[in-house]
Amino acid sequence: MTTTDSPRVEKRRPVPRAGAGRPGRRSGASVARPGLAWAAPATLFFTLFAVVPLIMVAVLSFAEWDGVDALSFTGVDNWKTLFHDHVMLQSIWLTLLTTVLGVVVQTPLSILLGVWAAGKQRNRAVLSAIYFIPLLLSATAISILWRALLDPNFGVPSQARWLFGDGNLFGHQSTAIGVLIFVGAWQYTPFHTLIYQGATRAIPQVLYQAAAIDGAGRVRQFWSITLPQLRTTMVTSMILMVVGGMTVFDTVLILTQGGPGTDTTTTPYYSYVKGFKDFQFGYASAIALILVVVATIISLVIVKFSGYDKMRSSSEGL
Amino acid sequence: MKKRWLPRAVAGSVVLALGLTLAACGGGSSSSSGSGSFTVLVYGDASNKVEKQIVDTFNKTSKVKAKLQTIPGADYQTKLQTIINTKQAPDVFFNWGGGSIAPFVKAGLLLPLDDMIAKDPALKSDFLPSVFNGAVLDGKSYGIPMRGTQPVLLFNNKKVLADNGLTAPKTWDDLLNAVKVLKDKHITPIALGGGDQWPTLMWYEYMYDRMAGPSLFDKALGGDKTAWDSPDSHAALDKLKQLIDAGAFGTNFDSVKYTDGGSVALVAQGKAGFELMGSWYYSQQQQDNPDFAKTGLGYSTFPTVSDGKGDQSDIVGNTNNYYSVLKKTKYPDAIAQFLKLQYSDEFVKAQMAIGNLPTTTNTTNFLDTAADPAYSKFQYDLVKAAPSFQLSWDQAYPQSASNAMHTAVQQFFDGKLDADGFIKAMQALPTS
């Protein structure tokens, strides 16, 4: 992404710095690249909090450990069990399904809201601030709130029988998934709205002026200018949604607890259940590793097919 | 260049080190010795009132202070197992005895209390033996009873029953009749917190005991998987199915929870007639709906089943909860003093006042001081007369079985598993 830009950036950098009281760093050659030392803190943290745990999880997946007794290595036993565990296989499908549904629901909503919020209408700032509130709440608080609001006997469903029937939202697979998607969208749409708002603001006004001269109305401008210009933003936003959606855990834990039965047991939640309810940390680690692999593959596929890896500036040609 | 980054790197490391030290302080303070205190970890619910009071009483006279920590009920076991072998482990903790502490005993984490008992025999002799023995493993005592005994009872809303010409059901047929009458009046006959899953389990525990007696479950727990496939097991499931199909629990019980007060409110507000729950239900109602607890809450034993082989006066539930002590605690003497309070008159009175029934030998002296003396007497007589007191299945089985057990229990109730599917799921549970 930055390879084409970087030489330009580096050449530019010394210029403003020179004025900030740093004589002696004027020649371009001596500031070619920042020293490796600058990467040390990030590398340290990444190693400590991402690479080391990942390796430990991989090691743990070949062992049996209940968190109390001594750890014992059991070879590939966990992995053998894993591929015959129908709850596990179902959980991958459920994780993919909820992720896709999340993207499908949230993307159009946040594009529309974002484009709207980028304008200069009356009350826009006030309404945008209100839309933003869910993002400031913790996922746990949001889930507890919705669980209470959706109580079949005392919540919204009890007042709207025509819509909810007996209100057994958490008793069927389809409605339980629906609740998860809805609450996820309620929570994260504001964030993606913000991304789209910023990106829409960055679209040069000249494009709209030119389109207006050519006789394009608002709708036509939206389809022919705004949307194409938001393409890179869409990829960014979708990758965030996919990665976030594949690892959703707190909402499942509080809203459905993977139920009814195992009907909403997604992979991250199943890993938690095996680890912290059944105390089979080895098996839980194997599940977590599968999730890492699946999520990585999907991210790579998105990057590949969206052309994100070789994408150029969206202001190209201006 | 080199000279420039060095001071910065040093400064950065200092900040980092500081941050880490601070974080370490935050995590370790509970077990560091300076303050001279020990941590008491308990399951968070309405009974905490008494635990707080006892801790306060203890702290008034003791130099070493006790610090009470409560973990919201549903997460208690998870939190405990995660921290018990770490620095953050409590010194004293709440448990259910038996299977719930067996893994910790096996790992050598718990302090046998026999030395304490040798110094102060009342620590053992002042408790009912059958209850005290619930926390004896391999001949050593690992727990002191610290709450009340908790038989599961069938609670009801007296007004709902009276308005519909019903009385507390004595037999299974009475119950089926009550279900029919209430359903016709569009009242949910029996409130069930199906979302929590463990309230559903109580129906199985009673049904199996009524139909087969305690031996079926004992056999299954001992590893004999054929017990689940016996005719008695099928008969018990048939009876449950009959009740579910009669609409006893309404249609949306999977979305209702006990732990968030949903099913409790259903009964208190007269939207449901019955709820099967442990005896702590009284203190829960007292906390949520004090007026209803005083005047509107009725209770009875689980109905008898005429064609059942079990003794019809058996009960199920939790024999009691226990305080166990970690081996590595720095204050065993102070803790011994703390444990002695668990049979003090003050403790018994405080438990009685919130409707719990302690299992100390001096309990009978205070039956009249209870919040509801009739309720306490009813429980006391019930426990005394019961030939068998079945410990909740999810506490009797190893922790690692409870999630799969709860799932199967829920799936049979909402029709996703038939009797054979349920039996297979129970046979697949780990038993040791």
Structure characteristics:
heterodimer; A: 318 residues; mainly alpha; MetI-like fold; 2 strands; 67% helix; 1% strand; disordered N terminus; B: 432 residues; alpha/beta; D-Maltodextrin-Binding Protein, domain 2; 2 domains; six-stranded mixed β-sheet; five-stranded mixed β-sheet; globular; SBP (chain B)
Q: Report the β-strand fraction of chain A as a percent range.
A: under 5%
Q: What is the oligomeric state here?
A: heterodimer
Q: Mean pLDDT score of chain B, rounded?
A: 88
CATH superfamily of the domain at 91-277 and 294-310 in chain A, by name, is: MetI-like
Low-confidence stretches of chain B: 18-34
Shape of chain A: globular
Q: Which outline of chain B best applies?
A: globular
Mean pLDDT of chain A: 85
What is the C-level CATH assignment of the largest domain in chain B? Answer: Alpha Beta
Mind describing the biggest β-sheet of chain A? Answer: 2 strands, antiparallel
Task: Give an account of the 3D structure.
Chain B: InterPro entries: Bact_solute-bd_prot1, SBP. The complex is a heterodimer of chains A (318) and B (432). Chain A is mainly α and 318 residues long. Chain A has a domain at 91-277 and 294-310: MetI-like (MetI-like fold, Orthogonal Bundle), CATH 1.10.3720.10. Chain A contains 16 helices and two strands. Chain A has a two-stranded antiparallel ribbon. In chain A, helix 6 packs across helix 10, helix 13 (231-246) packs antiparallel against helix 16 and helix 15 packs antiparallel against helix 16. Chain B is globular. Chain B is α/β, with parallel strands linked by helices and 432 residues long. The longest helix of chain B has 27 residues, at 2-28. Chain B contains 21 helices and 13 strands. Chain B folds into two domains: 37-148 and 321-361, D-Maltodextrin-Binding Protein, domain 2, CATH 3.40.190; 150-317 and 389-427, 3-Layer(aba) Sandwich (D-Maltodextrin-Binding Protein, domain 2). Chain A binds chain B through residues 30, 35, 37-38, 40-41, 66-69, 147-148, 150-154, 166-171, 257, 259-262, 273, 276-280, and chain B through 1, 5, 9, 12, 16, 78, 81-82, 84-85, 103-104, 106-107, 109, 194-195, 197, 250-256, 260, 262, 265-266, 271, 399-400, 402-404, 407, 410-411, 414, 416-417.
